[in-house]
Design brief:
The chain is of the alpha+beta class and 147 residues long. It has one domain. The chain has a four-stranded antiparallel sheet with strand order 1-3-2-4. The chain starts with 24 loop residues before the first strand and ends in a 22-residue tail after the last helix.
Length: 147
Amino acid sequence: MAKSPPKKLPVLNCQVCGGACCKYFALEVDRPKTPEDYDNLRWYIAHKDISIFIDKKDWYLQINTSCRYLTPESQCGIYDRRPKICRDYGWDTKKETECHGSELQDNLHEHYFANLEELEAYLRKAGKYPFRRKKKRTLGLKNGGMK
């Protein structure tokens, strides 16, 4: 039986969303478990142009910065030699559209935190904040041995 020719993918119209996927990148981080882990997340998001999101119980650090090759017309300035991750982006494993410009993704993330206040509100609701700090050990001396 002859193989059917590979299905040609339709062209994504990046002008619809202004090249949203080229204006940030995200790195998966370990799921927080300890007060220190949660405090690190608070530190990350305290920086400009950083956000955090959760998808399918996985945590991500989002760095909101544009690709240096994104043109004012929301096109790739190095299209013919763009990285593989850029070529693959926008298509799921079934080769169906899965990009931020798609109407299919109304709710992009399970949880999204744009700032420290939003993250802390989520952590409070989840019972993870405020943290209980361990008391300093004083070796059994009153006032830590101070007079």
